[in-house]
């Protein structure tokens, strides 16, 4: 079209006729034509010079600015945060696309009659919106609504209100909700990790937004993609060691346990003993990561990793292992715990009742405070301290979880005369539930201490810290705890040997004494013959009126969760005899009742 205009002008100047156009005049004067052409050209020149003057001199700043701002722009290409999955690829945290509506206050204030319409679309009072726009009158950007679903955004944009735009963003969604909130943590409105694994692996998960040059029209709409400057790089996927099913089971049973016992909080951890992989980690109270409000920080803590507690009687198998290593006892050593108490400095170490003479195994079976106290007296301070340190007490497990606590293991130099005795049954030192789970995994793993990990494929090489023979001996002693006569018969699982230890610890209160409030433990491993899992259950402050012993509060939860995990992971039973015996007994019982029913039916028929 431009070309043909130029041609036409050329034709005119050369005195040719445009195609198909009749001559306007029959006759013409060549001099007049020259004057006319010269005049037109002169006027055009003057107009061009004037225009050039206004463009280049008078209004130059305005046009330079407008040219840069309006036409060619470099804009960010948003990208999504990497997905977090469980060990089987099940999604645990996913980023879904959302739209954020933003406005240009300058432009919007030019169309005040559209503001009430916009306010209605945004569901905010019109006067409030007007006030906010006026406050930002000199700016060109403000968010109007962030992270709404794309349909809603389209609806708002369809009203074509000048100065209203949208921008793609991503929003994190957690399919497991409150069951996994503490481990995953959450991201802020800009999709950066704030707590938990979202924080620890923020760099890995975050993508690199790209950039491109575009041409926009005066309304801010992109009319042309000019060039890609840098492609957006989506974040990396993070595959965890957690098993979604075991996690959910753990969380569900923890909630049920708190309900049943009236406890105020609790934690549970399940480890793979060979690798240290964390299969499940649950805490209560919890929060909904998909609807963050101002939950108390109390609900946000991953207690299993950040909170320290006195481990109470869960220490006893470790004290026995230390003494076996020091060579001061054997599994057959006999200890007289009569009369059920002994002095501990100005205080007393007491047993639940007088257990009389016990062998080493019996000390574990009955959980005798006096028994382990007498055992630890045969050992030096240093070997006892070194052993506990090697088992991971007083040092971080290096799980990589943000805010992990190291617990407290006082150095022998700071021990009073009673420290060693008090520590032998789990007081005057403190540990996280995860540390206890690692120590039990070490006993289960032939004395090799694992580094617990949340990320699949990241586990290090376990370190041999205890003679495998001693680890096995202690495990065998711990098996008696779940057998008839032990403190945790409710932890027994049909078809599998379970080794474990109960604990009921009075809570130290701030006024400086041990209160009548309790923490109830069960820590155990299964199956004993070829251990796969280590699990710790910590229930804080059960209602004493409902029962507070570890064997009553925590052991049943261990049983239910481990029973499920063994089946989910296809772990072969190591106690087939008991299984078959129970099956046979049930069948014969059923036969008898069926026989009875047949007999009864027979009698009924005869009547
Ligand atoms: C206990 C303690 C507190 C700290 C005592 C529990 C001491 C102690 C000072 C009295 C309840 C209670 C350093 S008992 O865990 O012995 O699990 O089935 O809290 O002993 O000296 O009313 N556990 N628990 N002790 N302190 N200091 C037993 C035992 C244990 C059981 C039952 C009942 C305590 C068999 C605990 C369980 O093995």
Q: Please, could you describe this protein's structure?
A:
By secondary structure, this protein is an alpha+beta fold. It has 4 domains: 57 residues; 167 residues, Penicillin-binding protein 2a (Domain 2) (Alpha-Beta Complex), CATH 3.90.1310.10; 331 residues, Beta-lactamase; 31 residues. It is 39% helix and 20% strand. It contains 23 helices and 19 strands. Strands 2, 3, 4, 5 and 8 form a 5-stranded mixed beta sheet that branches. The protein has a 5-stranded antiparallel beta sheet with strand order 10-9-19-18-17, sandwiched between helices. A 3-stranded antiparallel beta sheet has the order 1-6-7. The N terminus is likely disordered. The structure holds ligand 59J. Ligand 59J binds next to β17 and α21. The site of ligand 59J has 18 residues, from β17 and α21. This is Peptidoglycan D,D-transpeptidase FtsI. It is a single-pass membrane protein. GO terms for molecular function: penicillin binding; peptidoglycan glycosyltransferase activity; serine-type D-Ala-D-Ala carboxypeptidase activity.
Question: Any chance you could write out the topology, listing elements then pairs?
Answer:
Elements: H1 2-13, H2 30-58, H3 60-71, E1 72-77, E2 84-85, E3 91-103, H4 105-109, H5 115-122, H6 126-135, E4 142-148, H7 150-157, E5 164-173, H8 181-184, H9 196-200, H10 202-205, E6 210-216, E7 222-230, E8 238-239, H11 244-261, E9 265-272, E10 278-284, H12 297-300, H13 303-306, H14 316-326, E11 334-336, E12 341-344, E13 347-350, E14 357-359, H15 360-366, H16 369-376, H17 381-390, H18 419-424, H19 433-444, E15 448-449, E16 463-464, H20 468-479, E17 499-508, E18 514-526, E19 533-540, H21 550-553, H22 555-568, H23 576-606
Bound molecules: ligand 59J.
Membrane topology: Single-pass membrane protein
Organism: Marilutibacter alkalisoli
Domain Penicillin-binding protein transpeptidase: 266-563
């Amino acid at each position: 079209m431009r070309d043909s205009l130029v041609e036409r002008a050329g034709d005119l100047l050369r005195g040719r006729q445009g195609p198909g156009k009749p001559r306007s005049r029959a006759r013409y004067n060549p001099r007049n034509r020259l004057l006319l052409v010269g005049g037109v050209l002169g006027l055009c020149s003057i107009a061009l010079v004037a225009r050039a003057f206004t463009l280049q001199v008078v209004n130059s700043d305005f046009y330079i600015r407008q040219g840069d701002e309006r036409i060619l722009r470099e804009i960010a290409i948003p990208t999504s945060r990497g997905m977090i999955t469980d060990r089987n690829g099940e999604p645990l945290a996913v980023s879904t696309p959302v739209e954020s509506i933003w406005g240009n206050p300058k432009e919007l204030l030019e169309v005040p009659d559209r503001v009430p319409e916009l306010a209605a679309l945004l569901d905010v009072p019109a006067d409030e919106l007007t006030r906010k726009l006026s406050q930002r009158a000199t700016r060109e950007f403000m968010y109007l609504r962030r992270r709404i679903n794309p349909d809603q955004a389209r609806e708002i944009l369809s009203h074509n209100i000048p100065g209203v735009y949208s921008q793609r963003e991503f929003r994190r969604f957690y399919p497991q909700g409150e069951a996994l909130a503490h481990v995953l943590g959450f991201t802020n409105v800009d999709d950066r990790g704030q707590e938990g694994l979202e924080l620890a692996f923020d760099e890995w998960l975050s993508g690199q937004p790209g950039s491109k040059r575009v041409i926009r029209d005066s309304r801010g709409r992109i009319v042309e993609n000019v060039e890609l400057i840098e492609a957006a790089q989506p974040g990396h996927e993070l595959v965890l060691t957690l098993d979604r099913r075991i996690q959910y089971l753990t969380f569900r049973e923890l909630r049920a346990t708190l309900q049943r016992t009236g406890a105020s909080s609790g934690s549970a951890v399940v480890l793979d003993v060979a690798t240290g992989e964390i299969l499940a980690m649950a805490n209560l109270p919890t929060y909904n990561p998909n609807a963050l409000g101002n939950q108390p920080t109390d609900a946000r803590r991953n207690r299993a990793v950040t909170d320290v507690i006195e481990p109470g009687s869960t220490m006893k198998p470790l004290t026995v292992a230390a003494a076996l290593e020091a060579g001061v006892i054997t599994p057959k050593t006999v200890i007289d715990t009569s009369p059920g108490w002994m002095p501990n400095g100005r205080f007393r170490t007491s047993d639940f009742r007088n257990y009389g003479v016990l062998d080493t195994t019996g000390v574990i079976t009955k959980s005798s405070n006096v028994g382990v106290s007498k055992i630890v007296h045969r050992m030096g301070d240093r070997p006892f301290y070194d052993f506990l340190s090697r088992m991971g007490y007083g040092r971080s497990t290096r799980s990589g979880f943000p805010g992990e606590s190291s617990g407290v293991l006082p150095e022998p130099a700071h021990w009073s005369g009673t420290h060693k005795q008090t520590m032998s049954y789990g007081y005057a030192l403190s540990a996280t539930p995860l540390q206890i789970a690692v120590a039990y995994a070490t006993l289960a793993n032939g004395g090799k201490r694992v580094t617990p990990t949340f990320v699949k494929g990241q586990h290090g090489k376990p370190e041999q810290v205890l003679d495998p023979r001693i680890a096995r001996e202690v495990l065998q002693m711990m098996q008696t705890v779940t057998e008839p006569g032990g403190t945790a018969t409710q932890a027994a699982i049909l078809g599998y040997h379970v080794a474990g230890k109960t604990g009921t610890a009075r809570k130290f209160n701030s006024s400086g004494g041990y209160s009548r409030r309790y923490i109830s433990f069960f820590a155990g491993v299964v199956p004993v013959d070829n251990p796969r899992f280590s699990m710790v259950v910590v229930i804080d402050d059960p209602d004493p009126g409902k029962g507070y012993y570890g064997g009553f509060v925590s052991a049943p939860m261990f049983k239910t969760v481990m029973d499920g995990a063994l089946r989910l992971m296809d772990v072969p039973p190591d106690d087939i005899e008991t299984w078959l015996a129970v099956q046979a007994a049930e069948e014969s019982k059923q036969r008898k009742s069926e026989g009875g029913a047949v007999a009864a039916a027979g009698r009924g028929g005869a009547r």
